[in-house]
Automatic annotation (TrEMBL), chain A:
The lineage of its organism: Eukaryota, Viridiplantae, Streptophyta, Embryophyta, Tracheophyta. It comes from Stylosanthes scabra. InterPro entries: RNA_pol_I_trans_ini_fac_RRN3 (IPR007991). This is RNA polymerase I-specific transcription initiation factor RRN3. Pfam families: RRN3 (PF05327). Belongs to the RRN3 family.
TrEMBL record, chain B:
DNA-dependent RNA polymerase which catalyzes the transcription of DNA into RNA using the four ribonucleoside triphosphates as substrates. It comes from Stylosanthes scabra. The keyword Zinc does not apply. This is DNA-directed RNA polymerase subunit. It is found in: Nucleus. The lineage of its organism: Eukaryota, Viridiplantae, Streptophyta, Embryophyta, Tracheophyta. It comes from the Eukaryota.
């Protein structure tokens, strides 16, 4: 808006250049700009000089800069991209973070005017604004202090307001903004605070006034970046090139700084994370940021639409990224925030993907693995939903059995085997809760599982032994059905057959919602997450199994209580940074005991993805 | 408004084989990707499409590494192609001494710089609002929210940005232009109408001769309105 108002004039009279009115200043600048085309650069160069940053500008210089910017706003149509190139590049280099609010406002005004005046400058203006998402390097550290936070709020509120202002004047600008923002996302190797700040801006765009147009690309771009970070994490939480000897490295040659042999490998990891720059830490902070964003979406009632976008992104990227360990918890948390809508939708979508033969086998296997892991781990999912999904799976499996009169062949019927394994896995977790409800118990008992499990295709032999054993044990206790065979797998976690059906990606051992190992994110997930240990403990009155699955011979274990032993479904060594339970930290494993621990723990553990198996997965 | 036209086009949409599951959705997607982009072939910005029919049910499969198949369609397209000297209408979103910013059809931004605004219009700040007021016709005012008619100078096809001009006589606030043209066309009606016109012209005279305070103009306007109503009834 033109600023030819009375008050403006008064301000000017107080300053040194009192003699000139706004209009005269604008004319002067206009003349200076047009003079360049005729070869006279003197005034123009002087103007450009005012724009260059000075180390510690005095109030006069600040006033001069502000005046220059305001005058330029009034004469944007005279700015030519060729003749006034030095002016434009000087403007481009200006960062809002370096100045006070008056200069910020003047600069924003100029940017908006430039964007609206000429189509050539729209991309330029948007890029300038996006550059201001993160502060210049020397101010990055201030962000943690209060001054820094205040500054950040001032800058970002203006930047986002500028986007809205430009969108009003140039309706198609938001369309051009999306690719610019995505292109300029910091790489995963950038510093943590920088990525965090940038993603914070992206989320702000998503929920802002132009979110309708821009938001659709923001979340998927963030998810993509999260996956990139996720797959870089090795089991030791650090960036690694050679994954082969990873576990040996972690436990055996623990070259710990203070030389304490008994120090938990986890604490080693913890300390490394505290440096703040590791990939795991970045991922943790980003996921936490996104969790907070999801919470705010829920409170403003938008979670359903945001979830649709998230789900699309999930289907396209996370579902088939088998190395993704934690990114999927975004979907989990969104479902937890809205179990009736999002929670149910997620389960339905996964079921549909499994039963429809439109999708390639790996995708279907992955979908059913997600389904099984989700329904087992999500505390907020109703038993009724689990029962109905089980029914669908059973029906599909039965149908498959009846239409395939062939003998066991892991490779050929991999989708079928993955379905059976999903069934069994879900029942391991949910048998009790289903049996407790009379109606669901009836439904469960009526499900034709026996014909499936005793079919020629022999799923009990092919599926993961641990799952099968646990399932049969629970089924026997619940009197689900009678099996004649007893299976003795000799504590095998996996067998050749399961490996065969799992394929190259080891989808037989794919349990995507196994406990989240990132500290901050885990604290959000915890209230909604079902732990195997709790379920085991609840079933203690069965009498059929011992709580302490480990007949450990090492005396160290004697100190621990039962819960600690079975706590979580993971190898103790990988509990990096989970210090929410002080007891856990007292657990120590000395490297020499590792092989024993590994084997003995098997009895009490549900197969977890996070284990140092011999699977090629970790290669 | 000029610049809008409906074209019938025979198009062939080439689809990737993976889309053969749901061809209609894929076609709609492809057509939607055309929206709000300028197409040289069609000579205009595609604003809307309506599929008439599939020309025939057969699609030719291209030979190549990936065998795309081409679905022939007959589509009605709503195109927007402003050419110089066309008259367009849009809503004013920003006014400054240097320029007027307009949005046309809700998506295209247009700018009219000060040098393309005829002498008649003068920039003022009235009641804390920035306006362009006509010197010759007091009621002819352009402010934020006014729909104006302007002529096209040029069109930037990439960003869909229009450079406009208010130089031609029949440009300005549409509301005023319509009213003004109405009054002119009723000259051969009854004398009463002529009288009211006379009233208006005297009003105009006043505004040119001397400065009328806002209150005066308002009162005069009300008066003339009342008289008009009386005369008409």
């Amino acid at each position: 808006m033109g600023r030819v108002s009375g008050t403006e004039k008064q301000e000017f009279t107080e300053m040194e250049n009192a003699e000139f009115s706004d209009f005269q200043l604008i004319c002067h600048v206009r003349d200076a700009l047009s003079a360049v085309t005729l070869g006279d650069r003197e005034n123009y160069d002087e103007l450009v000089g005012y724009l260059h940053r000075k180390e510690s500008p005095n109030p006069d210089e600040i006033a001069l800069l502000e005046t220059t910017l305001k005058a330029l706003s009034g004469t944007v149509s005279s700015i030519d991209s060729v003749h006034h190139e030095s002016l434009l590049s000087a403007l481009y280099r200006m960062s809002l973070w370096n100045y006070g609010t008056s200069i910020m406002d003047a600069l924003i005004e100029l940017i908006i005017s430039l964007a609206a005046s000429n189509g050539k400058y729209i991309d330029w203006s948007l890029e300038l604004l996006v550059n201001n998402f993160t502060p210049p390097y020397h101010l990055m550290n201030n962000l943690k202090q209060e001054i820094g936070i205040e500054k950040k709020n001032k800058v970002l509120s203006r930047v986002h307001a500028a986007f809205e202002a430009i969108a009003v004047l140039v309706p198609l600008a938001p369309l051009r903004l999306s690719p610019i923002v995505v292109q300029r996302m910091p790489l995963i190797y950038s510093k943590g605070p920088e990525i965090l700040m940038y993603v914070e801006n992206m989320l702000k765009l998503e929920s802002g006034a132009i979110g309708e147009i821009v938001g659709v690309t923001m979340l998927p771009a963030i998810v993509d970046r999260l996956i990139e970070l996720d797959v870089e994490i090795g089991w030791d939480g650090l960036l690694h090139e050679d994954a082969k000897g990873i576990f040996e490295m972690e436990l055996d040659d623990a070259e710990l700084e203070d030389g304490d042999d008994n120090m938990l490998a986890a604490e080693y990891l913890n300390r490394k994370s505290l440096e703040g720059n590791t990939i795991a830490d970045k991922l943790d902070s980003l996921i936490e940021l996104t969790f907070l964003h999801l919470e705010s979406c829920q409170s403003s009632g938008r979670l359903s639409e945001v979830f649709d976008v998230l789900l699309r992104s999930f289907k396209r990227t996370i579902l088939n990224a088998y190395k993704s360990k934690f990114t999927q918890f975004l979907v989990f948390y969104a479902c937890a925030l809205d179990p009736e809508d999002c929670g149910v939708k997620f389960a339905m979508v996964l079921t549909e993907m499994f039963v429809s033969n439109v999708y390639p086998p790996n995708t279907r296997m992955s979908a059913v693995a997600y389904l099984a892991s989700y329904l087992s781990r999500a505390k907020f999912v109703s038993a009724a939903l689990v029962a109905s999904i089980l029914q669908r799976l059973v029906d599909w499996c039965l149908n498959y059995c009846q239409s395939h009169d062939s003998i066991m062949n892991p490779r050929a019927h991999q989708v079928f085997y993955s379905g059976c394994q999903a069934l069994m896995y879900m029942l391991c977790f949910r048998m009790r809760s289903l049996m407790d409800a009379p109606r669901l118990k009836m439904q469960l008992l009526n499900m034709p599982m026996e014909p499936i499990l005793q079919h020629k295709l022999n799923p009990l032999k092919v599926c993961l032994p641990t799952v099968v054993v646990e399932f049969l044990r629970q089924a026997k206790a619940a009197k689900l059905f009678m099996t004649s065979e007893s299976f003795a797998f000799d504590d095998m976690l996996e067998s050749d057959l399961s490996r065969a059906f799992g394929g190259i990606y080891r989808l037989d051992m794919f349990f995507p919602f196994d406990p989240c190992l990132l500290k901050k994110s885990e604290s959000y997930i915890r209230p909604h997450f079902a732990r195997w240990s709790k379920i085991k403990c609840d079933g203690a009155d069965d009498g059929e199994f011992s709580e302490t699955g480990s007949e450990a011979s090492d005396d160290d274990f004697a100190d621990m209580n039962e819960n600690d032993m079975i706590e979580g479904d993971m190898m103790v060594s990988v509990q990096a940074g989970l210090d929410f339970d002080p007891d856990l930290n007292r657990m120590s494993i000395t490297p020499k005991n590792k092989p024993l621990l590994y084997l003995h723990q098997h009895n009490a553990r549900m197969p977890a993805r996070i284990r140092p198996s011999t699977s090629p997965e970790s290669l | 408004m000029d610049g809008l036209k409906v074209s019938k086009a025979n198009l062939t949409v080439y689809l990737h084989p993976s889309k053969s599951i749901d061809v209609s959705e894929a076609i709609l997607r492809e057509l939607s990707s055309l929206l709000f982009t300028f197409s040289e072939v069609l000579d205009g910005v595609v604003l809307a499409y309506d599929i008439n029919s599939l020309n025939n049910k057969n699609a030719k499969i291209l030979s190549g590494v990936i065998p795309y198949f081409g679905v022939p369609l007959s589509v009605d397209l709503l195109l927007f192609s402003p050419k110089p000297h066309m008259l367009l209408e849009g809503k004013v979103v920003k006014l400054s001494q240097e320029s007027i910013h307009v949005v046309v059809l809700g998506f295209s931004s247009a700018v009219i710089t000060e040098k393309d605004i005829r002498e008649e219009f003068v920039y003022k700040t009235k009641h804390e609002q920035d306006i362009y007021a006509s010197k010759s016709h007091k009621r002819h005012v352009i402010k934020v929210g006014t729909m104006i008619r302007f002529s096209v100078k040029s069109f930037d096809e990439e960003i869909l940005h229009i450079y406009g001009s208010l130089m031609p006589d029949h440009t300005g606030s549409i509301h005023w232009l319509e009213k003004h043209s109405d009054l002119i066309s009723h000259t051969d009606r009854n004398a009463k109408k002529r009288e009211s016109e006379g009233e208006l012209t005297t009003l105009k005279q006043d505004s040119i001769d001397g400065k009328l305070s806002p209150l005066d103009t308002a009162q005069k306007m009300k008066k003339s309105k009342k008289q008009k109503i009386q005369e008409e009834s």
